[in-house]
Write a structure and sequence with these properties.
Length: 300
């Protein structure tokens, strides 16, 4: 695993170097440029652009590297100085660095303090967490919820044996999906279908092929009022607040401006913002950079 991670970091380094030249072969990423890397899914790419634009507005030089890969690639690159800033999710980041961590039913401040403690010896600083968060969510048709008088996951306990659940293939083995639904809520669904994508989950739910589907709580389809996100009333999901992680040496070199700017963006970012940003990209066809620019324009 370590050799694969190292190989991935070396490939990322080569990619950054390759992107750092112009037609005149002059460096396009000069020393002092803050390098922001994103994971390989649209929401994180939007977030990278959002924070990068804030840094540009503060007068810092910024380069964004999109779709770099998974945590197994990006976080080692951050530790080794290949990139400088990664926008993370609080509970998931804590579990990545400490797999045995009990993140569920713990407060944001505790999770933040633990993550900061874990990352400090690695040369990484955890900046302020945003109110915005993106958790696993479980969705039903609003019509079904009204008919059954339900609004919470615990309301499904008696109904589950007669219901069909739809989620990604890995859901069956994940603590924050079917494993946790059984352990925390006692949910034993009559049937479970594997969904190839979140869009397929929505389509199948609307068509009546499943009764309950997994969607992230910032999924743009949740703007559709025919869908209802059930309350996680027993706290199965950990807090997944957006939280930027920055290389400590870069933070020191940039002075107070970098941390103040990033914290300022986090202070304004809401979960509703994330839903809208995802909608603009997924449903309106905008790029992550265009979505971020629209957010900044609306924010004044």
């Amino acid at each position: 695993m370590r050799s694969r991670a190292l190989a991935a970091v070396l490939l990322l380094t080569a990619g950054l170097v390759g992107c750092a030249t112009t037609e005149d072969d002059a460096p396009a990423v000069p020393a002092g440029t803050v390098r922001v890397a994103s994971y390989d899914f649209p929401e994180n790419q939007i977030l990278a652009e959002l924070y990068a634009e804030g840094l540009r507005r503060a007068g810092l030089e910024v380069a964004v590297q999109h779709g770099v890969g998974t945590r197994e690639v990006v976080l080692p690159a951050l530790e080794q100085g290949v990139v400088d800033v990664v926008v993370e999710y609080l509970g998931t980041a804590g579990e990545f660095f400490r797999p045995d961590a009990d993140t569920a039913r713990r407060g944001v401040d505790d999770l933040h303090a633990d993550l900061a403690q874990i990352l400090a010896p690695r040369g990484l600083t955890v900046l302020a967490a945003a109110a915005a968060e993106d958790q696993n969510g479980f969705v039903v048709l609003a019509r079904f919820a009204a008919e059954q008088g339900i609004s919470r996951l615990s309301d499904l306990t008696a109904l589950a044996p007669d219901l069909t659940f739809g989620g990604p293939p890995e859901c069956a083995d994940r603590q924050h999906c079917l494993v946790g639904l059984r352990a925390v809520y006692g949910l034993e669904f009559g049937a479970v279908l594997s969904m190839p994508s979140r869009a397929a989950t929505v389509d199948t739910l609307l068509a009546g092929g499943i009764d309950v589907g997994l969607l992230e709580t910032t999924d743009p389809h949740l703007t559709d009022r025919s869908l209802l996100l059930l309350e996680d009333d027993r706290g199965l999901q950990p807090h997944e607040n957006v939280v930027p992680i920055v290389a400590t040496d870069v933070l020191r070199a940039a002075g107070d401006e970098l941390a103040a700017t990033v914290d300022g963006v986090s202070a304004r970012l809401t979960t509703a913002d994330l839903v809208e940003l995802n909608r603009v990209v997924a449903l309106d066809g905008r790029t992550p950079a265009e979505a971020a620019a629209q957010w900044w324009e609306a924010a004044g």
